[in-house]
What does this fold into?
Amino acid sequence: MSFDLSLFRTYGPQLIHGLELTVVIWILGSALGILLGFVLGLALSAGRRALTIPIRCYIEFFRGTPLLVQLFIAYYGGPAVGIALNAFTVGVLGLALYGAAYFAEIFRAGFSSIPPGQIDAARSFGIRRWARVRHILLPQILVLAVPPITNMLIILLKDTAILSIVTVPELTFEVTGMTIETFSFVEPFFILALVYWGLTEFTSYCGRMAELRLGSYLAH
Amino acid sequence: MPGAGKEMDNFQQGQEQRPLIEVAGVSKWFGPLQVLNSVSFSVNRSEVVCIIGPSGSGKSTLLRCINFLEPYQKGAIYLRGERIGAEGRQRRDDERQIERLRREIAMVFQQFNLWPHMRVIDNVAQPLMLVHKKPREEAREIARRVLDKVGLSDKLDQYPLRLSGGQQQRVGIARALAVNPAVILFDEPTSSLDPELVGEVLQVMKQLAREGMTMLIVTHEMHFAAEVANRVVFLDRGTKLDEGPPRDVFFNSKNERTRQFLQTWIERNTLLADRPGAAAGTGAS
Amino acid sequence: MSPGFLNSPIIEGVTILLLGAGTTVILSCFVIVLGIIVAIPLCLMRLSKRRWLRSSAGAYVSFFRGVPLLVQLLVIYYFLPVLGLDLPPFVAAVIGLGLCTGAYQAENLRGGFLIIPLGQEEAGRAFGYTGAQIHRYILIPQALRAAFPALMNEAILILKASSLVSVVGVADLTRASQNIVARDLHPLGWYAAAALIYLVINLGLAMFGRAAERRLGAGFATVSP
It folds into this structure.
């Protein structure tokens, strides 16, 4: 067990870059995923079959297959149909499409949980669809959806590690590279684990704070 | 006699104006089940019309057809002579027209349907801002006045879930009043309330009637209908079986089914009805 | 049919995939069992009245839910030899996945326990049941029933997560597809085929889960207040 903390100084810059990339891909992928998931969830809750069926297929595929295999299809299989994306793009899009399938379900459940009577009231006054979404649905959804969204964000953060397998140079990739060169495996990976642990705990904490702030009107 | 005084005033008014709302031969099916069968009646300006009938008779559905919350397959509904929407399914261009007409028709719901994430004053101001395009301060000012009128000026900044049922419904009425509608539709406004809270809501509604608001009310509160309505419409299983001033429908109905439905109520209330000054229309409460 | 058909690369590839799928399923079964074995005591620790038990279990759960599975697998894969345990990758993978899923299962079970009305335990005590008996005959069966849907869900997640064991050298479905592609190319086709197989297995699991739920009357709704 030859582990030297000075290793971290040598590999420092690479590791920092890896961490930066992890966070960047996580944020970009999550944001895109939430946007797409929101639209899909809204469409699902509207209930028109022409929309519901293809969206359901999308969700079943992205939730029923491992993220790793999805990434393989995109990264290695893409060129066969003329889509040759670089690792970073595959990372962001892969995370986004995968996340969207989960976010869609979260948003759908949220939209469905709003008693239809509130929508009736809005319609009866002549409030139009987008105004209804913006003023009635969205504010209430946000509170309901924060816990599952936070959960999903944490899952996506952890899944960025999988991107290392398709050569995305994020944190796990860099640490793996370091272990291969230095033959020291356990400690670096363990510290890597601690770093992720810290990040996810912090995200959890932020989520709880957001829940408290947004939910003030629910206090009876 | 119940409702007599008010009816005389409106008789003269009604003669000179066409009906505010006209329901003509409306029929509706849910799949194979027919829920409305060629229903026709009209509501004149400043009239209070109560729709009564057994549960499941289609009363609420009929009300929701008027502001096109529900589509219907046959017939037509007119607001001031202009037809609301088209037959069958809603279409895009009709949606604009319906929204325009909805500005003049307000609705009060059985479940209140307040928006829980907004304070009381914002609940009332919201339609004014979004639909009637009033600036925020003006909308809130109107909301304040209306909430004062229904007796809730101390609850402006509360969230709806903190209020009692009766208070929430009064907010609902305030919300409807605020947009200055030509007519207010009431969908069983007191059916969800604890008995002790019903009174405060009926009080507000009586006040509105006295002030000449046109109201179309689906209700189980026979007392209220007998007291306040200009006309009562009896609906059973989607068909209009009877219509007329309360004294005719409640006490002199020629329709067997009407009499059967109202029998218990009549028995309990005939004594009351015969007392002088009892359950009179305007002024008494 | 030419005699070469059965030897064609496609049939060969499909066979390899199916073998890999078999490994995946078997691995997942082991993981689920290990998970339950870990989860029950862990859950009881989480519900314990003793603070240090609660906290240590809490830390365990927090760690295994807060660290990417891939990193957990890597740590365990390289750590076991240090402990002197020279285990094949399959076993290391089962241990890694099992410890992780144990944390999630413990939380699911805890949810199941929490929903049991207090009166149940009191009734047991009133009849003179010992603590262990209360757990064995009253609490645990009901907790399992209430948590069943969540546990089924976890099974599906395990199946998908198992794709990562390909990284530590287990010949699962994902690794099988990688091997085929390395030899025969056509990545799109083969990876899509692997995805399809995962999908079919998961859909099957989901249907089984729903049917089982109905027959067992499982889920939170059945534990009435």
